[in-house]
Amino acid sequence: MPKIVVLPHDDLCPEGAVLEANSGETVLDVALKNGIGIEHACEKSCACTTCHVIVREGFDSLEESEELEDDMLDKAWGLEPESRLGCQAVVADEDLVVEIPRYTLNHASEDH
């Protein structure tokens, strides 16, 4: 069973975590079911960047991102080559090490 190592995050996961995942689950779903409240403003529909994560290890085991995800990621704060949307990053058979960025952009909840 693959594991997801979540690196420490001041607000969401101060101690970091090691989570068991099933192949076929998304990084976001695994985090949420383990009490790590990664924001997901569009309810996992690949229409925002609030569930942006950086896959520090195991990135190559993920299926390639699709154009819609790439377009969304272009708007993400702190974009890196190993960035993915947690709602689109499907766990395969390899362990992952994931970093949750300190900031997200949520255009739906920003004060205008």
TrEMBL record:
Keywords from the UniProt entry: 2Fe-2S, Electron transport, Iron, Iron-sulfur, Metal-binding, Transport
Entry GO CC: cytosol
The protein's required cofactors: [2Fe-2S] cluster
Pfam families: Fer2
InterPro entries recorded: 2Fe-2S_ferredoxin-like_sf, 2Fe-2S_ferredoxin-type, Adrenodoxin-like, Adrenodoxin_Fe-S_BS, Beta-grasp_dom_sf, Fdx_isc
Transport is among the record's keywords: yes
Iron as UniProt keyword: yes
Domain 2Fe-2S ferredoxin-type, first and last residues per copy: 2-104
GO BP field: P450-containing electron transport chain
A GO MF term: metal ion binding
Protein family per UniProt: Belongs to the adrenodoxin/putidaredoxin family.
Protein role: Ferredoxin are iron-sulfur proteins that transfer electrons in a wide variety of metabolic reactions. Although the function of this ferredoxin is unknown it is probable that it has a role as a cellular electron transfer protein. Involved in the in vivo assembly of the Fe-S clusters in a wide variety of iron-sulfur proteins.
Protein name: 2Fe-2S ferredoxin
Naturally occurring in which organism (per UniProt): Vibrio ezurae NBRC 102218
Gene: fdx
